[in-house]
Specification:
The protein is mainly alpha-helical. The protein has a domain at 58-120. It has helices at residues 2-13, 24-34, 40-71, 73-86, 98-112. Helix 3 crosses helix 4 (73-86). The two termini are 40 Å apart.
């Protein structure tokens, strides 16, 4: 339902401003106009696949980060302190929490080695 709503919203505004494609859905809709192999049903399927894959990635990264934080209390404390210091600041892409951002990146790197018996 969420994917259908996003696709419908984008398709309702597609072409109104006569701008270049702003996202994947716009590009797909543009191809649908000229190529009969592209259809709405497949677009919904592709968007659902992207959404599911993103959810798996986020879930796996957060699981590894929780494990990392449990094993390294000093890192957990440092991230906590940084969040406490920055809590009142609105930042668009978390650039104000450098340590926390780097810890997430490191956790993601650990996740990529999960099948190789990585020792923390």
């Amino acid at each position: 339902m969420l994917v259908q709503t996003a696709v419908k919203k984008t398709s309702n505004t597609f072409g109104l401003l006569n701008l270049s494609c702003q996202n994947f859905i716009d590009a797909y809709l543009k191809e649908m106009e000229t190529d009969p192999r592209f259809n709405y049903h497949d677009l919904l399927g592709l968007c659902t696949d992207f959404f599911d894959a993103g959810g798996d990635t986020v879930g796996s990264t957060l699981s590894w980060m929780l494990l990392y934080m449990a094993l390294h209390q000093e890192k957990q404390e440092k991230c906590f302190q940084e969040i406490q210091e920055q809590i009142g600041i609105l930042c668009r892409y978390c650039t104000c929490t450098k340590y926390c951002s780097l810890t997430l990146v490191y956790s993601s790197r650990i996740r990529s080695y999960q099948n190789n018996s990585c020792v923390l």
